[in-house]
Design a protein that fits this description.
Shape: globular
Radius of gyration: 17 Å
Largest sheet: none
Number of helices: 6
Low-confidence stretches: none
Number of strands: 0
Length: about 110
């Protein structure tokens, strides 16, 4: 009772460890946002990937009048609005336009020190 379940990673590592362009981009983000390690970037990328995947799936059903579809769109957009990632009048296309920097700007450390 109360035992922890299996621990799972909250991020996905890059498929290739030594891509020069990706390493440079990650180093710039680390300096700009004062990140401790690259794992924090990978977490933000994973979060963004999940939002974008969900938005793409919902955009594929854009013409349907299904109440479940409408509720899912509303839930996703309300979540992104609460996280202050998009404006209240945003659409699913705005969700697809999000970047890793938008996610990193929402970190408490970034809000305090920048």
């Amino acid at each position: 009772m109360g035992d922890p379940k299996r621990l799972r990673k909250k991020y996905e590592t890059p498929s290739h460890p030594w891509e020069e362009e990706r390493i440079k981009r990650e180093n710039e983000l680390m300096k700009k946002y004062g990140l401790k390690n690259k794992r924090e970037i990978w977490k933000a990328e994973t979060i963004l990937r999940k939002y974008r995947t969900q938005a793409r799936k919902l955009l594929a059903k854009v013409g349907s009048e299904d109440p479940v579809y409408k509720r899912q769109v509303e839930q996703l957009m309300n979540h992104l609005i609460r996280m202050n990632l998009v404006k209240p009048d945003a659409t699913l296309d705005d969700c697809l336009a999000l970047t890793v920097e938008d996610i990193l700007k929402r970190r408490l450390q970034t809000l305090v020190y920048l």
